[in-house]
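Tutorial sheet, problem 5. The two components below are modelled jointly, 224 residues in total.
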Amino acid sequence: GQNIDQPTEMTATEGAIVQINCTYQTSGFNGLFWYQQHAGEAPTFLSYNVLDGLEEKGRFSSFLSRSKGYSYLLLKELQMKDSASYLCAAMDSNYQLIWGAGTKLIIKP
Amino acid sequence: GAVVSQHPSWVICKSGTSVKIECRSLDFQATTMFWYRQFPKQSLMLMATSNEGSKATYEQGVEKDKFLINHASLTLSTLTVTSAHPEDSSFYICSATGTGATEAFFGQGTRLTVV
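Model answer (structure tokens):
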């Protein structure tokens, strides 16, 4: 079956770095997405990886290893506003997104 | 980036009435639209997938006669919650993709409260 695993909750300190991991199993693969979702709001797009390697975008970077079915989202210089849920989603061969349950990130001063 | 507009943002309705939620793609042709439901502190739950001009494909456990989905054009899909009950109170979110798109664009979401 298709499955996405990511930690339920993580805590980090303002100004620090945090890495949120995601493993996936899908029928076919057309890319891995990371979304940020603040409570009560719709998700917002952060990154898309379809090739192996690291994609850097400002304070946020995303990594993909297709052979391992593994991705991570790296957040640097954490700010309080980064407190949110981070959703990992893999796109299968039918271009359907398979969603993880989300990782709630708590930032402490 | 592409914009998906979802309306209304929030709605309160009486039990037994029906509510329609609209999802519009403003600057691209949405060949596929997805409807999600999200309960508090839970992840997105896919309810159905609709392709323009075709009947929607519903996920297991989602009543197709209760959650009516129409995707009659490449820019508009609607979700109608019929005979709403308090347990249908939730956050409903649509997303859309276009031909060859590598990203799903989300609407703003609709907070439905049934009293």
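Marking note: Chain B touches chain A through 22 residues (CB under 8 Å). Full credit if you identified this.
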